[in-house]
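Annex B. Sample input.
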Amino acid sequence: MDLKNYICTNPFIYTEITVDKQHMCCNEWMGLDIKTKGSLTDNWNSSKAKSARQSMLDGTFKYCSTDKCPHLNDVVHNNRPSGPVKIKTDELVKELKSYKLPNSMKVVFDSACNLACPSCRVDFIRNENYITNKSRNILTDIEKSYGESLEFISMSGYGDPFYSEALFEWLCNFSTEKYPNMTNIHMHTNAMLWNERNWEKIKPAQPFIKSAEISIDASNPETYHKVRKGGKWDLLLKNLKFINSLDQVKNIILSFVIQDDNYDQIVSFYKLMDSIFQKERDLTFQYYKILNWGVLSNDEFEDKAIWNTNHRNHNKLVKQIQLLDSFNDKRIVHSLHGIQ
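Annex B, continued. Sample output.
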């Protein structure tokens, strides 16, 4: 499909920072590392970063995966832009070119988490000193380079912000003097520790927490305890109801990593979450393909990658996706359009 009529805003306004790399989108969706030997500001103005932006302006999207990115996948198969992918207009291009530094970023450098999901890691990663100290140093660099430009920050794409000592500390001590233009702190969490007690501890950050992505991957306790090692289903449901009571959190993404262990709950997950979050807010039901982050052997990954046509349960997945699509709910986003 010709993508020249579309543009992705991410390379103009968004960055993801890991321990040793920097990207302008999800690494699996756009595998371009813009890190240089200089500062975070130098990275943003590097030749690679400029090339990524040009690929959006000329419509080639040459660094992007239309298969892995659910937003581009939706455009290719349904001609329906979503998320950062927009219809290209002169006004939008002019606006995007006006940005000199990112106004949005995602924290992907702190691995400390209270869960050990098999799709992400081989074991629990606790709050070790080397993790906490490294995260504190990166947060200081972010403050110096991007503090005045950032309007949106998402934490965390690697661990959990309520568990990470460094990230939770940052939330507890959030300062508008250091981030004068901040409007939204997006929480990406498993919600195991998002309870009333911890909510009160991060009072300085509370006014800015207006959106969240909650990773769940199941619709019953048996599957949840398998794909979310260390999680507690009853506690999750209790915390989800608490989160639903927070009127300020207007945008919530409920995410589900599709794999052989949970494909049969794709539809029941949608129905369950829709029944829990009934307040007036923008909900997104986001389905991802499981990716191999280096923790699965090739055989293990192939066993979980149910969307491959030669997988033993592939046809069952197709039926689930067809049923999901039959709801014709624009709040549902996935990268399995056209699967057969």
